[in-house]
Amino acid sequence: MQKFTHIEALHQVARYIEITNENPDCPEIHKIRTPVKFRATVKLHGTNAGVNCSPEGLVMQSRSRVITVGDDNAGFAAWMAEPQRVAAVRAIEASVRAAGGLDAATPVTIFGEFVGPGIQKGTAVNALPARQWVVFAARILKDETDHDAGYLDVIGPFENAYADADIHSVFDAPTHELGIDFDSRESKLEAASRAEALTQAVEAQCPWGARFGIQGIGEGLVWTPIGPHWGHTGLYFKTKGEQHKGTKRTKSQGPQIDPEVLAGIEAFIEFAVTDNRLEQGLDTLGEQGHSLEMKNMRFFLQWVGQDVKRECSSDLEASGLEWKTVSRAVTTKAKNFFVKRISL
After folding, report:
1. 154, 95 in Cβ contact below 8 A?
2. Where in the numbering of this chain does the RNA ligase domain appear (predicted)?
3. What does the pLDDT look like over 84-101, one tens digit per residue?
4. Which domains does the chain have, with CATH numbers?
5. What H or E segment, with its residue span, contains residue 238?
């Protein structure tokens, strides 16, 4: 199976570009020397769900594993098995192949967010009258060392083409654009400020919910490069509303373009190991096919540790801390959270 790319925060993308551009061993073609234009789509609070399409059939997947009707995630495989949805996916697949110039034998994975009643809670999309699959990307198998990782620039608005099957495109909702010159601090601050304002508007009223007459909050936005930098997965970033952020900043200091500088281990734990992140860990546990039982705590702790290490590495570095000095405290807080949750 092909997993969808993990998406970072803006300050992590800025750091990635800095390291890449300063690396003498990195080929010049991979360096970011010109301003980058980004397009934002609404970030939906559901569960990642993909369909791998080949002549042999359709294979459903969650973010991390292949799923079936008998071993499902949020009921997606069973939902997708309905004939009208199979037909809709095959039609989308055909349009992807035509637009991408692909032959019939090349496996294509179509990614989307599965949203609606009973999947998550707390946002407008949870109040949709029925579950939906909202497509946002398509990908072919390709060497992971290639920056575009096989993503195809072929997904556009579906309008109502597959609405009868409850399948939509994220591009059916409004999108936004901004440019960033990563060599200019002023440009980064201006872009971060605009992205934050747009994200706050999404949090106040989810544009996807608004399409269906539902009032309620949204999660945030996903920003992907367009133009010459299209498909460069190292440049993808996300902006979340305050209610969905995985970190807790120590003070209000405007748009974030730099890592957080923290006073010590205790401050780092408060910043990084938030309830939002731990709740996401519980969601991931279910997505991986594990029940909420003590015997599965190790999978939860493993995910939390990996997520904190990946998403907060630049904050650790800026704070003069190392993973080995904070990992025990990360595990302790996550363990206490898990034990308390299963006792409810």
Report:
1. yes
2. 38-159
3. 999 999 999 999 999 999
4. 10-242 (3.30.470.30), 246-342 (no CATH)
5. strand 237-240
